[in-house]
Amino acid sequence: MPSDFIYLASTSPRRQELLAQIGVRFELLLPDPDEDAEALEAFRPGESPTRYVERVTLAKAAAARQRQARRALPPAPILAADTTVAIGGRILAKPADDADACRMLTELAGRTHRVLTAVAVVRGPRIEHRINVSRVSFARMSAAEIARYVASGEPRGKAGGYAIQGMVARFVRRIEGSHSGIMGLPLYETAQLLRDDGSPPPATR
């Protein structure tokens, strides 16, 4: 029988909100204190943004499956995801500090970039995944505007140094693709994976 909930292998409040938005019940399946979760996101030389986000998401999913088995948790599908920002073939990861966030936003200002989010669903030995690619065009931003935004603290821990659902939205000229994907969980692809996997589909109203 399909489970009536899924495990979410993510600390992101945005992903939790997005799953709740489409009516999917979930329980968090987070790393143990001795797990080096950050190591999964390390870059490899010459790796493309698409390959990177796919590899990291599948690694997160596999780690969560091991976590589920280690804790002897009840069976249920597991969802994992990862998001990265790219200009051409270059990845803009989470900023190391405020200066790094300023550098990223200065580079993004007045340009169009890609946001890639991969999502994976684990059920037993099988892992299915999909990738959403969206494009975001920023208006020009002055150094003072960038500094004020960075001072807000919002860029910390965000790929590319910004959160599309936050204050930076006033500089977003255009979005092509999935707004939820840019936030960190493409809901269309997620819903399709959950249906394909036999887990509970989004609740109808």
From TrEMBL:
Entry keyword Zinc: no
Q: Which GO terms describe its molecular function?
A: dTTP diphosphatase activity; UTP diphosphatase activity
Instruction: Give EC number(s), comma-separated.
Output: 3.6.1.9
What cofactor(s) does the depicted protein rely on?
a divalent metal cation
One biological process GO term for this chain? nucleotide metabolic process
Q: According to its UniProt record, which residues of this chain constitute the active site? A: D82 (proton acceptor)
Site residues, Important for substrate specificity = R14, T83, Q165
Mind naming one GO cellular-component term on file for this protein?
A: cytoplasm
Q: Which Gene3D superfamilies does the annotation name?
A: 3.90.950.10
Reactions that this protein is recorded to catalyse = UTP + H2O = UMP + diphosphate + H(+); dTTP + H2O = dTMP + diphosphate + H(+)
Compartments, as annotated in UniProt: Cytoplasm
The alphabetized UniProt keywords are:
Cytoplasm, Hydrolase, Nucleotide metabolism
Instruction: Answer whether the UniProt record assigns the keyword Hydrolase to this protein.
Output: yes
The family database entries (HAMAP family) matched by this protein are listed as: Maf
Family listed: Belongs to the Maf family. YhdE subfamily.
Q: What does this protein do?
A: Nucleoside triphosphate pyrophosphatase that hydrolyzes dTTP and UTP. May have a dual role in cell division arrest and in preventing the incorporation of modified nucleotides into cellular nucleic acids.
Stated name of the protein: dTTP/UTP pyrophosphatase
Q: Which organism is it from?
A: Zeimonas arvi
